[in-house]
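Thread: "does anyone have the structure for this chain?"

Original post by V.I.:
We have the sequence but no experimental structure in hand. Need at least a predicted one for the grant figures.
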Amino acid sequence: MRTVGVRIDRVTRSIYHDDTFGVYSLSHSIEVCSVGFAFLLVLCALAVFCFPPLSVYLLWLATLVRRSRPTILSGTWDFAALLLGLSGFIFFGGALVLTVLQSNFRYWMRGNFEGLRAAWGQERVLWMLLAGAYVLIVVGWVAATVLTRRRSLVIYNVEPAEFEMAIADVFEQLGRPLERRGNLWLSSGPVFELDRFEAGHTVTFRWVTNDVVLIQEVERLLPAAVRRLAPEANGAAAWLMAVALSLGLSACMGLLFGVFLIR
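Reply from O.Q.:
Generated one for you, tokens below.
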């Protein structure tokens, strides 16, 4: 059977019968539909795999900042919670970037699925090396961050000014008066750094000194001093809750739409 394509000229509105044009238009339309279908599936997978962990993390963070008292977390556990929240983007996002780069390269070079399959066999070692390098980079970054965060504390739901007075009182009890120079606090030498996040009512306390006895004594007295503080209402809780619920809803919609596309 002979396939005939009908083409309408945009200027003259005349009709042409062209076998080649019809075949080309059909193949081009199928190609565009395939690319669009794959792109929608990627978006659905992104929502399903990346949004839920981040939504749970933000919900947990919202509960911390809504408490009626401050909460002290070690820097390691605080980073671990953040890492779990971003785990979908770290693992799925990294795999997606490598896949997109690989698929684009092979698509433009060969232009058909048979070529893509053959190219995967030729380039498999290269992309496995890239994937291994990405994993090593992520693991190295996590290990380095955990090592640096071991000497820090994160205090949620506290007024930075009130916390500064509380920590000064703790050092007074130990007979170590403090002197402040920017974010650095000294007592016969550098002792700790304090990073303030006013909008989030959060303080990051990072040890600089290597005096193990002083660190143990301060961390023993600090929880009782912080519990006496009465934080003000934190407006960030409502924003965190709203973003978390929006991400959770987006993940559910992505799952339903992805199932619909596959079926």
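V.I.: this helps a lot. Confidence is low (pLDDT under 50) at residues 1-24, 26-33.
O.Q.: and The chain has seven helices and eight strands.
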